[in-house]
Amino acid sequence: MRLGIRLLFAFFLINGIAAFFVLRVFMAEIKPSVREVMEDMMVDTANLLAEVASDDLASGQLARDASQSRFAQRVRHYATRPIDAGIWGFSKQSLDFRVYVTDHQGRVLFDSENQAVGADYSQWRDVARTLRGEYGARSTREVAGDDTSGVMHVAAPIYVDERIAGVLTVAKPTRTVQRFIDRAERKVFMGGLLLLALSAAVGVGVTLWMVWNVRRLRDYALSVQGPADSEHGALPAQPLAVPQVPGELGDLARAMDRMRVRLEGRDYIEGYVRALTHELKSPVAAIRGAGELLQDELPAADRTEFATQVVQQSERLQRLIDRLLELSKLEQRQHAEGSAPVALHDCAAAAIAHTQGRAAQRGVALELTGQGHSGPWEAELITLAIGNLLDNAIDFAPAGSTVRVELDGATVAVQDAGPGVPDYALPRLGERFFTTARPGGERSGSGLGLAIVQRVMVLHGGQMQVRNTAPGLRVALKLGR
């Protein structure tokens, strides 16, 4: 399972469980809370009415003819009052209190709905507890099994000469407040769904942010191994940028960068040593062999030949060391330092002047065409790159042929008339110490010339393109910036 799916699943699981219990608590508390508020108001109402009924109960009017008492008349007038009240979006058009009065024995003296006059209510919880001086209340269903038919009863004692002479009970159907309960539950439920949706959106956002940063770190870690030719000791073509991520992930990125620098430096040195050792073996062996032979008595012609071989191999070693040092310096740089405009034509002309003598020795003509643009390039490096291309072309060009340097805008191309290179070798040109056979069959090159050219292009934000032209090889440098 992928990291993003795991994080999202864990977030939804935790958020879902929390939302379920929170909603459950809220939904479970709405109904009893509303009924508790209703009971609190009924307590006030019952005690107020108990005071109003105390005079009629004390005079015996309620016991003789309750319907004619002032209290009964006031209650009947209350029940018939017209009302149209808007309560938080709901319309109330009826008065729902039922009021009944019992004597000190629990017998009903007055009932506002004339349902239980004369009935014995002494066993009902509201009456019995109140007569004992306790708080009396009960909730009774009018229809068994139907929770919506419940009626709440709250009683208050009627005092006569500081003794409990009777009980007044106020009753109210719970269905009258059910619509408030239903609305509150709907609001809580919809609010819970909205909160869950917002939490899910936040969870998705956090997960995507986390996965994005982790993937950046992953890509960075994968890039540490460098390009496919890293096994040859080459540095990455472009400097690796440390991902800018916050918090602990940022610390991890910086730790990975420090690790990359250490590993890269170690691989770089190891690759250099391995490749350099391989390249040094041939000239050193040739010099040693010639030196051992020169210790013997040899004809003058043989001595001259072996001495010449020592000089040639020494020069080869010198060129190898010089180019290694040049490439090493370039690979430690991150960008070119050119600022003032540099004419590409001037760089090409300087490179031709440097290689003109060697070309004449090989019987190869050099030709410059086009003008090229000017740009903020480092003249010395551009000249070096073109010079290396010319050296390489001179090595492969047959005697009597022409090596052309063609300028076109920000592109310089070197075209020779040699045999070209095998197609399989084209992608590896520019790789340090990779060489192909010269026309004579010898492998005298080190492969560092094109590696230097490749690095110069990287520093200038350009690229080197190589293709066979049959005959010859064309190497084009497209400068950036």
UniProtKB/TrEMBL annotation:
Keyword terms: Cell membrane, Kinase, Membrane, Phosphoprotein, Transferase, Transmembrane, Transmembrane helix, Two-component regulatory system
Cross-referenced InterPro entries: HAMP_dom, HATPase_C_sf, HATPase_dom, His_kinase_dom, HisK_dim/P_dom, HisK_dim/P_sf, Sensor-like_sf, Sig_transdc_His_kin-like_C
Domain HAMP per the UniProt entry, residue ranges: 208-268
Domain Histidine kinase: 275-481
Major location (coarse): membrane
Location in the cell: Cell membrane
PANTHER family: HISTIDINE KINASE, SENSOR HISTIDINE KINASE YKOH
NCBIfam families reported for this sequence: PRK11100.1
Protein name: histidine kinase
Source organism per UniProt: Acidovorax temperans
